[in-house]
Each structure stands twice: as structure tokens, then as C-alpha cells.
Amino acid sequence: EDQVTQSPEALRLQEGESSSLNCSYTVSGLRGLFWYRQDPGKGPEFLFTLYSAGEEKEKERLKATLTKKESFLHITAPKPEDSATYLCAVRGRLDYKLSFGAGTTVTVRA
Amino acid sequence: ETGVTQSPTHLIKTRGQQVTLRCSSQSGHNTVSWYQQALGQGPQFIFQYYREEENGRGNFPPRFSGLQFPNYSSELNVNALELDDSALYLCATKLAGGYEQYFGPGTRLTVT
User: Is it the case that residue A66 has pLDDT exceeding 70?
Assistant: First the structure.
């Protein structure tokens, strides 16, 4: 069964203080690793898809990278509006569902 | 915003009752999945519908059932509600052949 573990559970940052979130996974035949952002009480918002080791994607202050066992979401010079829960999910070769981690809740203080 | 809509936004039910949640898909997105998200956890896959048929199911009992309509909208039905069914219910849609799933805003279900 596909498994996703995210760390840390919570991250408190000062505005401008860069940091990284980790997503470790085990999956049978990776068909995609996905990052989502979720604000309280709302549905997840799609950020990135990564398909193979070595791939990188960027969007504003966020950069996602992928290895064969884990993915990192780097937040560069965060702003308070980057405060949210960031979810990582995988889709395996034999399956159609997304398997999610529990998320990392990021709080950025001004 | 994704264009995926869900109704109602919030719902309070009593244990043992039945509930129907609804999801409207984006244009061209013919696959819909439903997820349950308990507080502080990631979404858990319930099932997926494609061409009006269920083509994948997670570890949820048969009292969780669904429908997909010709316009790709969908319903999630839960019978014999239990307290543990209290959660945020999310639907997600995707294009046929695509991998990215786009989520709606969710329905918050509270069972008392």
C-alpha cells in the first residue's frame, strides 16, 4: 500500500525566513507526486506535479523537488499569505487514487 | 478557483440518518473522486467514478455509495450515519488521461 509521511507536522517561520518541508513516500511505480495547499476549512489547491527523480517545479516563492524516496517543498522568503497546510500526495502505477500525507501546517509571522 | 462546486457547505445530521452530498464538475472533467478528511489528517480516498460507473474504491463500507450523472456531476450518499463520519467531504475532478485532480471547497458534515 502506498504510504506518505510529511515532516515536520508544524512549522513557524518569521517573514523572510526560508525553510523546507519534507515528504517521504513509498509507492509501487510512481505515476506522480503532487503538492497541494489547503487553507482552513477549504479544499486543497493544486500546486505542482512531479513525475520523475531530479524534476523541479517553481511557482512564486515555492519550489518542489523530487528524489526516488522523497520530495521537498522549499519556501523562499515567505510572507504571511503563505501560511497554510501543505499536503503531499502520490499516485502509483496500479492505482487511480491519491494517497495523502497528514500535511505540514506553516505559519508565517510578520 | 477550480470551478468545482459542492453543496451544501455545511450539514448537521443525527446518528442513523442518511445524507446526500453533491458535486458539480468542471467542463471536460469526466472523472470524479470523493475523499473524506478528518480534522488534522490528510484526505482519504472513498471512491472514483468514470463514465457513470464506479471504477475504484478505498477502504470504506458499502453504506458509502455514489452516483455520477451524464453531465459528470456526482453525488455521495452515506447511510446509517455514525459519529466518526463527521468530517470534511471533498470531491475532486480530472480530465480523462490526466493525473492532476482539482478539488472543490468541500462539505463539512457533523454527526451528533
Answer: yes
* pLDDT tens per residue, range A14-28: 999 999 999 999 998
Please give the sequence-ordered ranges of beta strands (E in DSSP) within chain B, or none if there are none: 5-7, 10-13, 19-24, 31-37, 44-50, 53-57, 64-68, 74-78, 87-94, 102-103, 107-111
Name every chain B residue with its beta carbon within 8 A of the beta carbon of A98.
Answer: 33, 35, 43, 45, 92, 101
Chain A, chain B: beta-carbon pairs less than 8 Å apart: 64
Q: Which helix (H) or strand (E) holds A70?
A: strand A70-75
Write b or e for each residue in A67-92: b if 16 or more Cβ atoms lie within 10 A of its Cβ, otherwise e: eeebbbbebeebeeebbbbbbbbbbb
Phi, psi (rounded to 5 degrees) for A80: -55, -30
| A46 vs B44, B102, B104: nearest CB | B102
Per-residue pLDDT of B73-94, as tens digits, reads 999 999 999 999 999 999 999 9
Question: A89 CA to chain B: closest CA distance, Å?
Answer: 9
By the 10 Å C-beta count (0-12 exposed, 13-18 middle, 19+ buried), A33 is classed as buried
Q: Are strands A70-75 and B107-111 parallel, antiparallel or unpaired?
A: unpaired
The pLDDT, as a whole number, for residue B46 is: 97
Q: Pairing between strand B107-111 and B53-57?
A: unpaired
Compute the average pLDDT of residues B22-30: 87
